[in-house]
Amino acid sequence: MKKTKARYNRSNISKRLQAFCDDGIDVYYSAYFVRGKQKDLIINKLPFSRIESLATHVKLELPDEVRVEVFDGKDAENVHWANEYTLKDETIPEAIVDTAKTAFNGLGEIEINNLVDQRLREQKRLDDFERLKIENGELTTELEDQRELLDELEQENEQLRNELESKKQVRYYAGMLGDILEGIGISKDKIRNPIASLMGISEEEKPKEITESKQDTSGIVEDEEPISPEQKKRAEVISLMNDYLNSTDNQTLANLFTIFSEIESNPTKAIDVMTFINTNK
């Protein structure tokens, strides 16, 4: 690649590039403008037919130096020929220089294109912002609807949980009551219907161990056998406990249910409870 340096002359540059065309070279040229230590690419691989663009940029931007590079084809990466030119004062008429400085103030085609690109980018950002704001509003509305649905499901779930817990407690104490009554001599056949009703068991859910009795559905009745003093005392204790359980609040009832459950699984824990009570008296 031949590299030279000379004074800027538009006619000489055109002749040089025309000579390359005559030699069969597919001429594309690039131009760099140098101002002090700054070097900017102004024209990037334009065909020789648009050589007038170089003169236009030089008139408008008035660089200190111009570097012209020639390529053999638009897609060529290696420079075929290059030359650096220093601008002479007489190259550009004084009237053009004054007009360029006052009207354009060094603002060339590249700067104008940059301003246009910047405005387009700003408009695109505004459009994207408006689009995202609309999407955010739609997502917020959908999220609120989902939250309301979740709250309704949680309330329904809590209600079902409370109903299930109440039914468990009633069934537990009804079953315990049935065992106690059977222990003091009252037959399960005679207490089947009241216990089943208390436990919330329908006819299809009746426990297998409680057989149907067509003759006595009036409730709990005592056997004809006499009750011993010990059994009577036991019945009174159970009656007192039943009265207390019916009158206590739900929280205390739940606590007692937990204690009874622990004692049922391990009867020795009743002794631990009594020891704790006596210790803290």
Share of helical residues? 55-70%
Instruction: Write down the overall mean pLDDT.
Output: 77
How far apart, in Å, are the first and last alpha carbons? 110 Å
Question: What's the helix-strand series?
Answer: EHEEHEEHHHHHH
Tell me the number of helical segments per DSSP (H or I, 4 or more residues long). Answer: 8
Task: Give a verbal description of the structure.
The protein is α+β, with helices and mostly antiparallel strands and about 280 residues long. The protein has a domain at about 1-105: Ribulose 1,5 Bisphosphate Carboxylase/Oxygenase, CATH 3.30.190. Helix content is about 60%, strand content about 15%. The chain has 8 helices and 5 strands. A 5-stranded mixed beta sheet has the order 1-5-4-2-3. Strand 2 and strand 3 form a beta hairpin. Residues about 90-105, about 205-215 and about 215-220 have low confidence and may be disordered.
What attributes does this structure have?
281 residues, alpha+beta, 8 helices, 5 strands, rod-shaped
Topology:
Layout: E1 2-7, H1 10-22, E2 27-35, E3 38-47, H2 52-61, E4 65-72, E5 81-86, H3 94-104, H4 109-183, H5 188-199, H6 229-247, H7 250-265, H8 269-279
Parallel strand pairs: 1-5
Antiparallel strand pairs: 2-3, 2-4, 4-5
